[in-house]
Design brief:
By secondary structure, this protein is of the alpha+beta class. The protein is 44% helix and 14% strand. The relative contact order is 0.11.
Length: 139
C-alpha cells in the first residue's frame, strides 16, 4: 500500500511538471523564471529617463510600508523597452510626471497646480502616465 501511494504521488508530481511545461529532471524551471525576471527588470531600468531612478517612491504607504517604487509600478504595467522607449503591455509609451510638492505652499500655488493639471491632462491623452505622489512627511 505504501509503495502504491509513493508511486501515485510521484506520478502526480511528474504530470504536474509536464502540464506546466517544466522539466522535473533538470530543475531549471525556477532558475529560468528568475533569469527572465532579471532580464525584464534590466530592460525596464535601461529605458528609464535619466532623471528617474528605479528605487524612487511613486506612492507612499503607512510608515514606509507599502511604498510603491518606479520598479514595482513598471512591473505592474508589464513595461518593456521598445525602440529605446519605455512602453506598457499595450505598447503605449510611458511617461513620468512629478507634481510640485510643498510644506508651505507659495503664494501662487493655485496657478502652479492649474498649469500642472493641464500639462498632466495633455500627457494622459497620448501616454501612459506614472504620477509621483508627494511625500507625506513634507506636507
Amino acid at each position: 500500500m505504501r509503495k502504491l501511494t509513493i508511486i501515485i504521488g510521484l506520478t502526480f508530481l511528474f504530470a504536474v511538471g509536464l502540464f506546466q511545461g517544466n522539466s522535473l529532471a533538470d530543475g531549471s524551471s525556477g532558475s529560468r523564471h528568475r533569469t527572465q525576471k532579471r532580464r525584464a527588470h534590466a530592460t525596464r531600468i535601461n529605458c528609464l529617463p535619466p532623471e528617474t531612478k528605479a528605487d524612487e517612491v511613486i506612492s507612499y504607504g503607512m510608515n514606509g510600508r507599502g511604498n510603491i517604487t518606479v520598479e514595482k509600478k513598471l512591473a505592474q504595467l508589464k513595461a518593456r523597452c521598445r525602440n529605446r522607449k519605455l512602453v506598457d503591455a499595450k505598447g503605449r509609451e510611458i511617461r513620468f510626471f512629478k507634481p510640485s510638492c510643498w510644506g508651505n505652499p507659495p503664494a501662487d500655488y493655485a496657478e502652479i497646480q492649474q498649469r500642472e493639471n493641464e500639462e498632466l491632462e495633455k500627457l494622459r491623452k497620448c501616454y501612459t502616465v506614472i504620477v509621483f505622489g508627494c511625500n507625506p512627511m513634507i506636507q
